[in-house]
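TICKET: design request
STATUS: open
ATTACHED STRUCTURE:
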């Protein structure tokens, strides 16, 4: 029964709930950034140089390279998914796309943290400063002793 009680205390802590919400929102935010890359940024990049990063790869064995050459001679480039059926490939285009996703996601997170810190600093400035703490019991006692000694003189 102790294990169940410990788990309940752990699961009901605010930090665990905050972490769960953060993970869910982070996953959704990652999908938004991926969509922005795939559907908005990459088409603009592809317009400029007619480059499609998703189908950029190197064939690692002879069978893949032969299939790439045959497709090129036929006038239809071999897509990444088709090339993978012939053997191993290094898909550097996918890596470039994921790297761009990471950089944009990192920039977005940086901006969110920067806005949060700016708002926090502004909020802290607006808060009235706390009233000075009253004297401690020891200080009160010493004050009384001082006053008594001053009264005797």
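STATUS: resolved
RESOLUTION: sequence designed for all positions
ATTACHED SEQUENCE:
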């Amino acid at each position: 029964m102790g294990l169940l009680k410990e788990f309940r205390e752990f699961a009901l802590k605010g930090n665990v709930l905050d972490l769960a919400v953060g993970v869910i929102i982070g996953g959704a935010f990652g999908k938004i950034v991926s969509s922005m890359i795939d559907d908005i940024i990459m088409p603009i990049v592809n317009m400029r140089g007619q480059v499609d990063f998703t189908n950029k790869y190197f064939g690692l064995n002879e069978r893949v390279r032969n299939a790439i050459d045959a497709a090129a001679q036929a006038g239809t480039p071999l897509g990444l998914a088709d090339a993978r059926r012939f053997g191993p490939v290094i898909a550097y285009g996918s890596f470039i796309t994921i790297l761009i996703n990471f950089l944009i996601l990192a920039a977005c997170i940086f901006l969110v943290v920067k806005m949060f810190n700016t708002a926090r600093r502004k909020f802290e400035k607006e808060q009235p400063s706390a009233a000075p703490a009253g004297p401690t019991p020891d200080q009160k006692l010493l004050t009384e002793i001082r006053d008594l000694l001053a009264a005797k003189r």
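CLOSING REMARK: The helical segments are 2-11, 14-49, 62-74, 80-86, 92-126, 137-152. Residues 100 and 124 are 36 Å apart (CA to CA).
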